[in-house]
Write a structure and sequence with these properties.
Length: 235
């Protein structure tokens, strides 16, 4: 999917150089902070995003920058009728103190295992993607090519339909089905490598699911997770 996005951007640049499509605007790191501050005014009706604070933390983005972005998102949620954000369960858990994903304050959210790249689409007319597809603060492109914008909206629409709603009425007393085999592996005391192979998951995905399980149980260690799961009757 990331390769397809990069190919679409390159194709757009090819046609833009010939005056057929509108060119993308590149924004380098020194200008990104002021640009993000202006973004709440960029959408009047709809804002679609892929975002994951967990990934930003892993990439070394400072808390100050994340707080700045969170403030801008809150401004957008306050004035844009339809804000739809897609993130991961880990990202939502790590976002508790930041508020970049304010689904309790007006935005709509869906959770997927891992976002494919970062993205923002404004009123179906303009899109913003990072140059490296991972972190906006490393540099970004502002895209107004309707063909690319529509393609990015289609990706967002597909993942939105497949995502889970964190505000749904799932019984918090029940163990989510996708975490049950992870808990079994923790109970059995097998290594992460063997657990990932048993469940046919990548090591990274397995680690993410362990983190999701710990967050769900409200604990910080695997030992505590076992005790908490036993108290709930999950093992």
């Amino acid at each position: 999917m990331r390769e397809a996005v990069q190919q679409a951007v390159e194709e757009s640049a090819f046609h833009a150089a010939r005056g057929v499509r509108p060119p993308a605007q590149r924004v380098d790191p020194p200008q990104i902070g002021p640009l993000i501050a202006r973004l709440p005014a960029a959408a009047q009706r709809e804002l679609l995003t892929f975002d994951d604070p967990a990934g930003c933390i892993d990439q070394g983005v400072s808390e100050r920058m994340l707080m700045h972005a969170a403030g801008c998102v809150h401004q957008a949620v306050a004035r844009v009728p339809d804000v739809r954000q897609i993130t991961s369960s880990e990202g939502l858990a790590l976002d508790a103190d930041l508020g970049t994903i304010p689904y309790r304050d007006g935005s709509k959210v869906r959770l997927i295992e891992e976002i494919p790249f970062r993205l923002a689409v404004f009123d179906r007319k303009m899109a913003m993607i990072p140059l490296d597809l991972d972190v906006f603060y490393n540099g970004l492109l502002i895209i107004r090519d309707p063909t690319v914008v529509n393609a990015l909206m289609g990706v967002h629409r597909t993942w939105w339909a497949a995502g889970d709603d964190p505000a749904s009425d799932r019984d918090p007393r029940e163990l989510p089905a996708h975490l049950a085999p992870v808990l079994t592996c923790l109970r059995d005391g097998i290594s992460d490598q063997h657990a990932a192979a048993r469940l046919r998951l990548s090591p990274r995905t397995y680690t993410r699911r362990v983190s999701e399980l710990l967050t769900l149980l409200g604990v910080t260690s695997r030992f505590q997770a076992g005790a908490a799961a036993a108290r709930r009757g999950w093992i």
